[in-house]
From TrEMBL:
Name by which UniProt lists this protein: Glutathione S-transferase
Organism taxonomic ancestry: Bacteria, Pseudomonadati, Pseudomonadota, Alphaproteobacteria, Rhodospirillales
Domain GST N-terminal: 1-87
The organism of origin for this protein: Thalassospira alkalitolerans
UniProt-listed InterPro entries: Glutathione-S-Trfase_C-like (IPR010987), Glutathione-S-Trfase_C_sf (IPR036282), Glutathione_S-Trfase (IPR040079), Glutathione_S-Trfase_N (IPR004045), GST_C (IPR004046), Thioredoxin-like_sf (IPR036249)
Any GO molecular function: transferase activity
Family named by the database record: Belongs to the GST superfamily.
Length: 233
C-alpha cells in the first residue's frame, strides 16, 4: 500500500500516473494547498519542504519500517526502482531517462510554473515577467519537440518516468500560451499519453477535490510563504 499525499496539480498527477500504470495499490490523502494543509506538523514531519506530493510506502522492498519520500522526481525514481518498471536497468538507457527527468524537474516544471503564476495569478500584470516565462516555456516546448522527432517517447521506444514527469506540465499548454500545432512531435506524443487508460484513471482520481477557481485567500496561503511561515508551522 502506498499512502499518497496529493492535490490535483501537475506534480501530484505525476505520481498517480505512475501508480495507475504500475497497478500499485494506493490511498489518496488530500493535501489542500489552498487551505494550508501542507503546513500541518504531521505532514511536515515527512515532507519538510511543505510541498506535496509525498508518499509513505507501507511495504518497502527491504521489509523494514515504512519509507517516506518527498519531491515528485524522487518519488518517481523510488517507485520505479521499487517495482522495476518505467526505468531501464541498462546503464545507458537509465542515464537517458534520468537526464530527462531532471530536465523536467529543473526546467519545464519551474518555468511553466512561473508562466502560470505571472500570467494567471499575480495581482499585477508585469509584461516583462509574462514574456520572460512564456518565451522560456516556448523554448522548452521546442527542446522537447526536437527530442521527440523519430521517437515514441522521450527516452526512446519505451514509456518511462521521464514521460510521466513531463506530461502533466503540457496539459495546461493553452494557459501557458502555447499552441501544440507548432510542435507536431510533441502534439503526437501528448495525444498518445492522453489516451492511455492509466492516464485517464490517474486524472479521474483527483476529480472532485478542487472546488472552482483559486480564491484570494488561497493565493495568500500559496504565494505569501517565507522562512517564518515554515518555522511557525
Amino acid at each position: 500500500m502506498i499512502d499518497l499525499y496529493y492535490w490535483p496539480t501537475p506534480n501530484g498527477h505525476k505520481i498517480t500516473l505512475f501508480l495507475e500504470e504500475a497497478r500499485l495499490e494506493y490511498k489518496i490523502h488530500p493535501v489542500n494547498i489552498g487551505a494550508g494543509d501542507q503546513f500541518k506538523p504531521e505532514f511536515l514531519a515527512f515532507s519538510p519542504n511543505n510541498r506535496m506530493p509525498a508518499i509513505i510506502d507501507q511495504n518497502p522492498a527491504d521489509s523494514g519500517d515504512p519509507i517516506t519520500v518527498f519531491e515528485s522526481g524522487a518519488i518517481l525514481q523510488y517507485l520505479a526502482e521499487k517495482t522495476g518498471k518505467f526505468l531501464p536497468s541498462d546503464v545507458r538507457a537509465r542515464k537517458t531517462v534520468m537526464e530527462w527527468l531532471f530536465w523536467q524537474m529543473g526546467g519545464l516544471g519551474p518555468m511553466a510554473g512561473q508562466n502560470h503564476h505571472f500570467s494567471a495569478y499575480a495581482p499585477e500584470k508585469i509584461p516583462y515577467a509574462i514574456n520572460r516565462y512564456v518565451n522560456e516555456t516556448n523554448r522548452l516546448y521546442g527542446v522537447l519537440n526536437k527530442r521527440l522527432e523519430g521517437r515514441n517517447f522521450i527516452a526512446g521506444d519505451d514509456y518511462s518516468i521521464a514521460d510521466m514527469a513531463s506530461y502533466p506540465w503540457i496539459v495546461s499548454h493553452e494557459k501557458q500560451q502555447q499552441d501544440l500545432n507548432n510542435f507536431p512531435n510533441l502534439k503526437r506524443w501528448f495525444a498518445s499519453i492522453q489516451a492511455r487508460p492509466a492516464t485517464i484513471a490517474a486524472y479521474k482520481a483527483g476529480e472532485g477535490l478542487r472546488s472552482g477557481e483559486m480564491s484570494e485567500e488561497d493565493k495568500k496561503v500559496l504565494f505569501g510563504q517565507t522562512a517564518k511561515t515554515t518555522k511557525n508551522a
